[in-house]
Protein backbone atom coordinates (compact mmCIF):
# COMPACT_ATOMS: atom_id res chain seq x y z
CA UNK A 1 0.00 0.00 0.00
CA UNK A 2 1.46 3.41 -1.01
CA UNK A 3 2.14 6.15 1.52
CA UNK A 4 -0.64 8.48 0.28
CA UNK A 5 -3.19 5.66 0.18
CA UNK A 6 -2.26 4.48 3.68
CA UNK A 7 -2.67 7.96 5.12
CA UNK A 8 -5.96 8.49 3.29
CA UNK A 9 -7.36 5.20 4.58
CA UNK A 10 -6.30 6.04 8.13
CA UNK A 11 -7.97 9.45 8.02
CA UNK A 12 -11.17 8.01 6.48
CA UNK A 13 -11.51 5.65 9.44
CA UNK A 14 -11.13 8.45 11.95
CA UNK A 15 -13.54 10.74 10.08
CA UNK A 16 -16.27 8.11 10.49
CA UNK A 17 -16.17 8.64 14.26
CA UNK A 18 -17.14 12.30 13.92
CA UNK A 19 -19.85 11.47 11.36
CA UNK A 20 -21.46 8.85 13.60
CA UNK A 21 -21.73 11.27 16.51
CA UNK A 22 -23.24 14.07 14.39
CA UNK A 23 -25.81 11.69 12.87
CA UNK A 24 -26.84 10.42 16.31
CA UNK A 25 -27.52 13.96 17.51
CA UNK A 26 -29.49 15.01 14.42
CA UNK A 27 -31.99 12.14 14.71
CA UNK A 28 -33.93 13.68 17.56
CA UNK A 29 -33.88 16.71 19.82
CA UNK A 30 -34.65 14.43 22.74
CA UNK A 31 -31.18 12.88 22.69
CA UNK A 32 -29.76 15.85 24.59
CA UNK A 33 -27.79 13.43 26.74
CA UNK A 34 -25.78 12.30 23.74
CA UNK A 35 -25.02 15.94 22.94
CA UNK A 36 -23.89 16.58 26.50
CA UNK A 37 -21.64 13.55 26.69
CA UNK A 38 -20.21 14.16 23.24
CA UNK A 39 -19.68 17.92 23.62
CA UNK A 40 -15.87 17.96 24.02
CA UNK A 41 -15.42 15.59 21.09
CA UNK A 42 -17.88 17.49 18.89
CA UNK A 43 -16.01 20.72 19.36
CA UNK A 44 -13.01 19.13 17.69
CA UNK A 45 -15.11 17.44 15.01
CA UNK A 46 -16.88 20.69 14.16
CA UNK A 47 -14.02 23.14 13.95
CA UNK A 48 -13.34 22.48 10.26
CA UNK A 49 -16.97 22.07 9.19
CA UNK A 50 -18.15 25.29 10.86
CA UNK A 51 -20.67 23.48 13.06
CA UNK A 52 -20.32 24.33 16.74
CA UNK A 53 -22.41 22.61 19.44
CA UNK A 54 -24.14 25.17 21.65
CA UNK A 55 -22.42 28.53 21.77
CA UNK A 56 -20.57 29.29 18.56
CA UNK A 57 -17.91 31.32 20.35
CA UNK A 58 -14.47 29.83 20.77
CA UNK A 59 -13.35 29.13 24.34
CA UNK A 60 -9.61 29.36 24.88
CA UNK A 61 -8.04 27.59 27.84
CA UNK A 62 -6.26 29.75 30.39
CA UNK A 63 -2.51 29.77 30.51
CA UNK A 64 -0.93 27.51 33.13
CA UNK A 65 2.52 28.19 34.51
CA UNK A 66 5.11 25.48 33.80
CA UNK A 67 6.11 23.17 36.64
CA UNK A 68 9.86 23.54 37.14
CA UNK A 69 12.47 21.89 39.28
CA UNK A 70 12.24 18.49 37.56
CA UNK A 71 15.66 17.41 36.32
CA UNK A 72 15.37 16.10 32.76
CA UNK A 73 11.66 15.12 32.73
CA UNK A 74 11.08 12.54 30.02
CA UNK A 75 7.54 11.21 30.08
CA UNK A 76 4.14 12.41 31.28
CA UNK A 77 1.15 10.17 31.98
CA UNK A 78 -2.23 11.74 32.83
CA UNK A 79 -4.44 9.75 35.18
CA UNK A 80 -8.24 9.73 35.11
CA UNK A 81 -8.44 11.80 38.30
CA UNK A 82 -6.29 14.53 36.73
CA UNK A 83 -3.00 13.81 38.46
CA UNK A 84 0.04 13.66 36.19
CA UNK A 85 2.87 11.18 36.67
CA UNK A 86 6.25 12.28 35.35
CA UNK A 87 9.53 10.39 34.99
CA UNK A 88 12.61 12.36 36.03
CA UNK A 89 15.82 11.07 34.47
CA UNK A 90 18.22 13.19 36.49
CA UNK A 91 21.74 13.40 35.12
CA UNK A 92 21.69 12.18 31.54
CA UNK A 93 24.70 11.93 29.27
CA UNK A 94 26.42 9.21 27.23
CA UNK A 95 27.37 7.34 30.39
CA UNK A 96 24.42 8.42 32.52
CA UNK A 97 24.25 8.30 36.28
CA UNK A 98 22.65 5.40 38.08
CA UNK A 99 20.39 5.85 41.06
CA UNK A 100 19.30 9.48 40.56
CA UNK A 101 16.04 8.81 38.70
CA UNK A 102 12.66 9.70 40.20
CA UNK A 103 8.94 9.36 39.67
CA UNK A 104 7.08 12.63 40.32
CA UNK A 105 3.38 13.30 40.85
CA UNK A 106 1.87 16.65 39.84
CA UNK A 107 -1.44 17.36 41.59
CA UNK A 108 -4.41 19.35 40.27
CA UNK A 109 -3.28 22.41 42.23
CA UNK A 110 0.12 22.33 40.53
CA UNK A 111 2.02 21.05 43.52
CA UNK A 112 4.45 18.21 43.01
CA UNK A 113 5.73 15.41 45.19
CA UNK A 114 8.22 12.59 44.83
CA UNK A 115 6.64 9.14 44.62
CA UNK A 116 9.92 7.25 44.31
CA UNK A 117 13.57 8.30 44.39
CA UNK A 118 15.30 4.97 45.03
CA UNK A 119 16.05 2.12 42.63
CA UNK A 120 15.70 4.15 39.42
CA UNK A 121 18.44 5.06 36.97
CA UNK A 122 17.11 6.84 33.85
CA UNK A 123 13.32 6.31 33.93
CA UNK A 124 11.54 7.14 30.70
CA UNK A 125 8.21 5.85 29.33
CA UNK A 126 5.34 5.46 31.81
CA UNK A 127 2.24 3.28 31.93
CA UNK A 128 -0.09 3.41 34.93
CA UNK A 129 -2.29 0.38 35.40
CA UNK A 130 -4.34 0.22 38.59
CA UNK A 131 -2.08 0.95 41.54
CA UNK A 132 1.13 0.25 39.63
CA UNK A 133 3.39 2.51 37.62
CA UNK A 134 5.36 0.66 34.95
CA UNK A 135 8.40 2.58 33.74
CA UNK A 136 11.19 1.78 31.30
CA UNK A 137 14.65 2.21 32.83
CA UNK A 138 17.60 1.68 30.48
CA UNK A 139 17.63 -2.12 29.91
CA UNK A 140 14.81 -2.98 32.31
CA UNK A 141 11.19 -2.25 33.11
CA UNK A 142 10.45 -1.34 36.73
CA UNK A 143 7.26 -1.53 38.79
CA UNK A 144 6.67 1.38 41.13
CA UNK A 145 3.94 1.54 43.75
CA UNK A 146 2.34 4.83 44.78
CA UNK A 147 3.89 4.34 48.19
CA UNK A 148 7.34 4.36 46.61
CA UNK A 149 8.39 0.71 46.40
CA UNK A 150 10.43 -0.09 43.29
CA UNK A 151 11.13 -3.54 41.86
CA UNK A 152 12.27 -4.97 38.55
CA UNK A 153 9.37 -6.26 36.47
CA UNK A 154 11.40 -7.22 33.39
CA UNK A 155 15.18 -7.57 33.43
CA UNK A 156 17.42 -7.48 30.36
CA UNK A 157 17.52 -11.30 30.45
CA UNK A 158 13.74 -11.47 30.01
CA UNK A 159 14.00 -9.99 26.52
CA UNK A 160 14.67 -12.22 23.47
CA UNK A 161 17.68 -10.02 22.69
CA UNK A 162 19.53 -7.52 24.82
CA UNK A 163 17.76 -4.15 24.86
CA UNK A 164 19.81 -1.09 23.97
CA UNK A 165 17.59 1.85 24.92
CA UNK A 166 14.14 0.98 26.27
CA UNK A 167 11.97 4.02 25.76
CA UNK A 168 8.16 4.12 25.62
CA UNK A 169 5.56 1.68 26.97
CA UNK A 170 1.83 1.29 26.32
CA UNK A 171 -1.02 -1.23 26.55
CA UNK A 172 -3.70 -2.19 24.04
CA UNK A 173 -7.34 -3.14 24.53
CA UNK A 174 -6.35 -6.79 25.04
CA UNK A 175 -3.93 -5.89 27.86
CA UNK A 176 -0.91 -6.68 25.71
CA UNK A 177 1.97 -4.42 26.65
CA UNK A 178 4.30 -2.91 24.05
CA UNK A 179 7.77 -1.50 24.74
CA UNK A 180 9.93 0.44 22.30
CA UNK A 181 13.68 -0.07 22.14
CA UNK A 182 15.21 2.87 20.29
CA UNK A 183 18.39 0.92 19.63
CA UNK A 184 21.44 3.03 18.80
CA UNK A 185 19.86 6.32 19.82
CA UNK A 186 22.89 8.37 18.67
CA UNK A 187 23.28 6.96 15.17
CA UNK A 188 19.89 5.34 14.56
CA UNK A 189 19.19 1.70 13.82
CA UNK A 190 18.98 -1.59 15.66
CA UNK A 191 15.70 -0.72 17.36
CA UNK A 192 12.58 -2.81 17.85
CA UNK A 193 9.19 -2.95 19.52
CA UNK A 194 8.67 -5.76 22.01
CA UNK A 195 5.34 -7.26 23.04
CA UNK A 196 4.66 -8.65 26.52
CA UNK A 197 1.80 -11.09 27.05
CA UNK A 198 -0.21 -11.77 30.21
CA UNK A 199 2.40 -14.31 31.35
CA UNK A 200 5.20 -11.73 31.06
CA UNK A 201 6.62 -13.50 28.03
CA UNK A 202 8.49 -11.01 25.85
CA UNK A 203 8.75 -11.33 22.07
CA UNK A 204 9.86 -9.12 19.20
CA UNK A 205 6.77 -7.44 17.78
CA UNK A 206 8.33 -5.57 14.83
CA UNK A 207 11.79 -4.43 13.79
CA UNK A 208 13.75 -3.82 10.58
CA UNK A 209 12.89 -7.35 9.43
CA UNK A 210 9.27 -6.19 9.06
CA UNK A 211 10.19 -2.87 7.44
CA UNK A 212 13.73 -1.59 6.78
CA UNK A 213 12.55 1.93 7.64
CA UNK A 214 12.16 0.91 11.28
CA UNK A 215 15.33 2.27 12.86
CA UNK A 216 14.73 3.71 16.33
CA UNK A 217 11.09 3.28 17.43
CA UNK A 218 10.09 5.74 20.13
CA UNK A 219 6.55 6.89 20.95
CA UNK A 220 3.85 4.21 21.09
CA UNK A 221 0.09 4.69 20.89
CA UNK A 222 -2.79 2.20 20.98
CA UNK A 223 -5.94 4.20 20.23
CA UNK A 224 -7.28 2.66 17.02
CA UNK A 225 -8.72 -0.83 17.29
CA UNK A 226 -6.55 -3.40 15.58
CA UNK A 227 -3.48 -1.18 15.21
CA UNK A 228 -0.45 0.06 17.10
CA UNK A 229 0.94 3.44 16.08
CA UNK A 230 4.53 4.48 16.63
CA UNK A 231 7.04 7.05 15.49
CA UNK A 232 10.75 6.78 14.80
CA UNK A 233 13.35 8.99 16.47
CA UNK A 234 15.97 8.44 13.77
CA UNK A 235 14.01 9.27 10.60
CA UNK A 236 10.93 11.15 11.87
CA UNK A 237 8.44 8.70 10.32
CA UNK A 238 4.99 7.87 11.68
CA UNK A 239 3.91 4.24 11.31
CA UNK A 240 1.10 1.94 12.27
CA UNK A 241 1.17 -1.84 12.57
CA UNK A 242 -1.86 -4.01 11.92
CA UNK A 243 -1.98 -6.37 14.87
CA UNK A 244 -3.46 -9.40 13.11
CA UNK A 245 -0.68 -9.80 10.55
CA UNK A 246 2.04 -7.29 11.55
CA UNK A 247 1.79 -5.35 8.29
CA UNK A 248 3.64 -2.05 8.76
CA UNK A 249 2.33 1.13 7.08
CA UNK A 250 4.15 4.43 6.88
CA UNK A 251 1.54 7.14 7.47
CA UNK A 252 3.56 10.33 7.40
CA UNK A 253 7.03 11.79 7.79
CA UNK A 254 8.90 14.97 8.66
CA UNK A 255 8.65 14.79 12.45
CA UNK A 256 12.37 15.22 13.14
CA UNK A 257 13.47 13.47 16.31
CA UNK A 258 10.01 11.99 16.79
CA UNK A 259 9.27 11.32 20.44
CA UNK A 260 5.84 11.64 22.09
CA UNK A 261 2.61 10.52 20.44
CA UNK A 262 -0.93 11.05 21.77
CA UNK A 263 -4.49 11.20 20.38
CA UNK A 264 -7.20 13.60 21.55
CA UNK A 265 -10.47 14.73 19.96
CA UNK A 266 -9.84 14.19 16.26
CA UNK A 267 -6.12 14.87 16.23
CA UNK A 268 -2.81 13.16 16.71
CA UNK A 269 -0.17 15.19 18.51
CA UNK A 270 3.51 14.43 18.01
CA UNK A 271 6.60 15.90 19.61
CA UNK A 272 9.96 16.46 17.93
CA UNK A 273 12.64 16.24 20.61
CA UNK A 274 15.55 17.28 18.41
CA UNK A 275 13.96 20.42 16.97
CA UNK A 276 11.69 21.42 19.84
CA UNK A 277 8.43 21.21 17.91
CA UNK A 278 4.88 19.99 18.56
CA UNK A 279 2.80 18.84 15.59
CA UNK A 280 -0.96 18.46 15.26
CA UNK A 281 -2.33 16.05 12.65
CA UNK A 282 -6.04 16.32 11.83
CA UNK A 283 -7.36 12.82 11.20
CA UNK A 284 -11.06 13.74 11.02
CA UNK A 285 -10.89 14.22 7.25
CA UNK A 286 -9.14 12.44 4.41
CA UNK A 287 -7.29 15.64 3.46
CA UNK A 288 -6.77 16.82 7.04
CA UNK A 289 -3.65 18.91 7.44
CA UNK A 290 -0.66 18.61 9.72
CA UNK A 291 0.54 21.83 11.33
CA UNK A 292 3.27 22.93 13.71
CA UNK A 293 1.41 23.79 16.89
CA UNK A 294 4.44 25.04 18.82
CA UNK A 295 8.16 25.39 18.21
CA UNK A 296 11.23 26.75 19.95
CA UNK A 297 11.06 24.25 22.79
CA UNK A 298 14.13 22.77 24.44
CA UNK A 299 13.76 19.00 24.14
CA UNK A 300 10.00 18.33 23.85
CA UNK A 301 9.73 14.73 25.03
CA UNK A 302 6.95 12.17 25.72
CA UNK A 303 3.63 14.04 25.79
CA UNK A 304 0.09 13.46 27.05
CA UNK A 305 -3.21 15.38 27.25
CA UNK A 306 -4.89 16.51 30.47
CA UNK A 307 -8.02 14.64 31.49
CA UNK A 308 -10.29 17.52 30.44
CA UNK A 309 -8.66 17.62 27.00
CA UNK A 310 -7.73 21.29 27.34
CA UNK A 311 -3.95 21.08 27.55
CA UNK A 312 -1.07 19.17 26.07
CA UNK A 313 1.36 18.12 28.81
CA UNK A 314 4.92 18.48 27.51
CA UNK A 315 8.02 17.47 29.46
CA UNK A 316 10.53 20.07 28.24
CA UNK A 317 13.47 17.89 29.03
CA UNK A 318 16.42 20.24 28.59
CA UNK A 319 14.66 23.07 30.44
CA UNK A 320 13.91 20.87 33.48
CA UNK A 321 10.20 21.63 33.48
CA UNK A 322 6.77 20.42 32.39
CA UNK A 323 4.86 22.78 30.09
CA UNK A 324 1.07 22.99 29.56
CA UNK A 325 0.08 24.00 26.02
CA UNK A 326 -3.56 25.15 25.61
CA UNK A 327 -5.42 23.24 22.89
Which features characterize this protein?
327 residues, mainly beta, Neuraminidase, 2 domains, 4-stranded antiparallel sheet
CATH structural class of the largest domain: Mainly Beta
Task: Give the strand content.
Answer: 35-45%
Number of helices: 2
Helix/strand order: HHEEEEEEEEEEEEEEEEEEEEEEEE
Give me the secondary-structure category.
mainly beta
Poorly predicted spans: 24-58
Tally the structural domains: 2
Shape: globular
Rg, alpha carbons? 20 Å
Strand order of the largest sheet: 1-24-23-22
What's the CATH H-level homologous superfamily of the largest domain? TolB, C-terminal domain
Q: Determine the N-to-C terminus distance.
A: 33 Å
Helix content: 10-25%
Outline the biggest β-sheet: 4 strands, antiparallel
Mean pLDDT: 87
Number of β-strand runs: 24
Could you please say which CATH topology of the largest domain applies here? Answer: Neuraminidase
What would CATH call the architecture of the largest domain? Answer: 6 Propeller
Report on the structure:
The protein is mainly beta and 327 residues long. The chain folds into two domains: 3-46, no CATH class; 72-326, Neuraminidase (6 Propeller). 12% of the residues lie in helices and 39% in strands. The chain contains two helices and 24 strands. The protein has helices at residues 3-26, 32-46; strands spanning 67-68, 73-78, 84-88, 102-106, 112-116, 123-129, 132-137, 140-145, 150-154, 166-171, 177-181, 192-196, 202-207, 217-221, 227-232, 238-242, 248-252, 258-264, 267-272, 277-282, 290-294, 304-305, 311-316, 321-326. A four-stranded antiparallel β-sheet has the order 1-24-23-22, with no helix packed on it. A four-stranded antiparallel β-sheet has the order 2-3-4-5, with no helix packed on it. It has a four-stranded antiparallel β-sheet with strand order 6-7-8-9, with no helix packed on it. α1 packs antiparallel against α2 (32-46). The longest helix has 24 residues, at 3-26. It is globular and about 45 Å long. The protein starts with a helix and ends with a strand. Mean pLDDT is 87; it is low at 24-58.
